[in-house]
Amino acid sequence: SDPGLVERARAAKAALGDRVFVLGHHYQRDEVIEFADVTGDSFKLAQQAAARPDAEFIVFCGVHFMAESADILTTPDQQVVLPDLAAGCSMADMAVLGQVEDCWDALVELGIAGTTVPVTYMNSSADIKGFVGRNGGVVCTSSNAKRALDWAFERGEKVLFLPDQHLGRNTAVLEMGLTLDDCVLYDPHKKNGGLTAEQLTNAKMILWRGHCSVHGRFTLENVQEVRRQRPDVNVLVHPECRHEVVQAADYVGSTEYIIRALDAAEPGSSWAIGTELNLVRRLANAHPDKEVMFLEKTVCYCSTMNRIDLPHLVWSLEELVAGRVPNQITVDADTSRHARTALDRMLALP
Ligand code: 13P
Ligand code: SF4
Q1: Which of 20, 130, 274, 300 has its CA 20 to 30 A from that of 231?
Q2: Which DSSP letter does residue 266 get?
Q3: Which domains can be identified in the chain, with CATH numbers?
Q4: Whose CA is nearest to atom 4 of ligand 1?
Q5: pLDDT tens digit string along 189-223?
Q6: Which pLDDT belongs to residue 1?
Q7: Rounded to the nearest 5°, which phi and psi values hold at 279?
Q8: 150 and 192 Cβ atoms separated by less than 8 Å
Q9: Where does iminosuccinate bind (predicted)?
Q10: Is the CB–ligand 2 distance for residue 164 below 6 Å?
Q11: Would you say the pTM of this structure is higher than 0.80?
Q12: Centroid of ligand 2 to alpha carbon of 123 (angstroms)
């Protein structure tokens, strides 16, 4: 990266000192990760956002829903900055509050809302988290989805899982003993999700029709191909991958889990990894004694994560030095209160 920009980032961070706390998700570019005070998966970053109540500014190098969650979990005096406002998440955009309310109304009409617990993946907007908090539900991330579903099934007979069908299905079927027949797919663009009253009533898991466009690109053929080429390969994927990919993999887990698995791996071992490319490249560089491959042939970055680059980070930090707060992310008080309830339930999971 540009040495001038590196110098400017260092100088701005030094000028701000403890007033700023920079968080970086594992999918961020190397040039950005270099300036993160802490890196993590979505769960760790949610915990860390609340860990420095003395820092005036939280610069969130990640995507919009993460910055919103940080705003919800920090004190009212702290200001959260997202270096590029275009850093959204296509999966989070697949669940819009009005659609979720329509779905809930359909469950009320059928008399099954009272026994349904809504669970939303962290990758959702603050107003979806608020809806879930208001209706007795919980947030989860890829590192605690099973515990969140256990929590939900202790409180209800069925779960409405938002917005990632794959995380919901993979956790329910591969970790909790539910069957594929226990799950139905609710399409927000169709009346009653495109489902009959009987299907909705009989389902244990109502899965929202959302997915991650990055992880959706990995296929069962990718897994089979890499096993043909390297019979001793360990296939390690993120739970946002399709069901058949996760089923065929050897290990599945969050970004933080993937990093720890590589740290613990034997020298000389071979790994094919199904997650975002910035992270896989960083792992390959960090483990020259192991063979680390990307599960797919084509380049597969998360384009919105990649919006945050060194020029945007430098601009944000220099604005803060100049006494201005750029790209501040704020969630309104009412939404924030209910979303906080759902996030606190997650943070309190055993
Ligand atoms: P985790 O870092 O929690 O595994 O999440 C992956 C992801 O897609 C974030 O957008
Ligand atoms: Fe969203 Fe997928 Fe990108 Fe994560 S990797 S931010 S889920 S689009």
Answers
A1: 300
A2: P
A3: 3-89+305-331 (3.40.50.10800), 92-211 (3.40.50.10800), 215-294 (3.40.50.10800)
A4: 254
A5: 999 999 999 999 999 999 999 999 999 999 999 99
A6: 77
A7: -70, -45
A8: no
A9: 25, 42, 121-123, 142, 238-240, 255
A10: no
A11: yes
A12: 8
